[in-house]
Amino acid sequence: MTKLEILSELLVEELHSFKEEVNRLEKIEKSLKDTSIKADSTQIEKLIADHFRKLEVDQTAQQENREEILKIIKHSRTIPNWLIVLVLILILFLSLAFAIAYLLLH
């Protein structure tokens, strides 16, 4: 065989394999066109709904805590009870001392 015959045989084989590959790719393309993909967002919607429920529960708990703290602040005093009692006792002792001093001087 001559080189030309060998080259032509190789070329024919390459063309044949190329044609087979093209046919295979056409089949794949046809099957891809026939395949339909449906978007399903139910899982995402469920996750979002769960997240919103958790946010509502957290927001309610925070609101209750805020109201409780505001109630505690509203009923708190700036002067402690022990200081009020101490001042009252001192006033009592001073008034007694003045009364005794007044009685002793008259």
From TrEMBL:
Stretches assigned to coiled coil: 8-35
Pfam families registered for this protein in UniProt: DUF6730
Membrane-spanning ranges: 82-105
This protein's UniProt keywords: Coiled coil, Membrane, Transmembrane, Transmembrane helix
Protein name: Uncharacterized protein
Organism: Leeuwenhoekiella aequorea
